[in-house]
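Quick one, probably user error.
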């Protein structure tokens, strides 16, 4: 898995098992989460399911989830510490840019500290 990959998780009926769907960016994540929520509401309003309690969110793949180098999915948050549902639609593009800038700054600092050369792609 690539560092920084995004995944939406969704549980259509709590307590149930979550499924995941890969997304390319924050706008896709917002669209998918909103669509899944609207679909659950539609099913409820049209008596397809008698009730529901859903949950969902956005996670990001990290190569170090615990400081010991163990990779896995972690909850996404922006550089200000806000969770995904707290970021207004109008800010999604700015958040992506800030996150990418932060990632680049960390990579540059790591290279300077270790003297390692980065690969070009």
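Nope, works fine. Designed sequence:
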């Amino acid at each position: 898995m690539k560092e920084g990959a995004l995944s939406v998780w969704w549980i259509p009926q709590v307590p149930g098992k979550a499924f995941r769907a890969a997304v390319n960016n924050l706008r896709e994540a917002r669209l998918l989460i909103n669509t899944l929520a609207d679909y659950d509401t539609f099913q409820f309003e049209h008596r397809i399911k008698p009730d529901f309690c859903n949950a969902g969110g956005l996670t990001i793949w990290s190569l170090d989830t615990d400081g010991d180098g163990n990779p896995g999915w972690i909850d996404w948050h922006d550089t200000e510490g806000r969770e995904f549902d707290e970021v207004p639609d109008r800010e999604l593009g700015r958040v992506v840019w800030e996150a990418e800038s932060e990632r680049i700054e960390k990579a540059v600092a790591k290279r300077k500290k270790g003297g390692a050369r980065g690969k070009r792609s």
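The helical segments are 26-45, 92-114.
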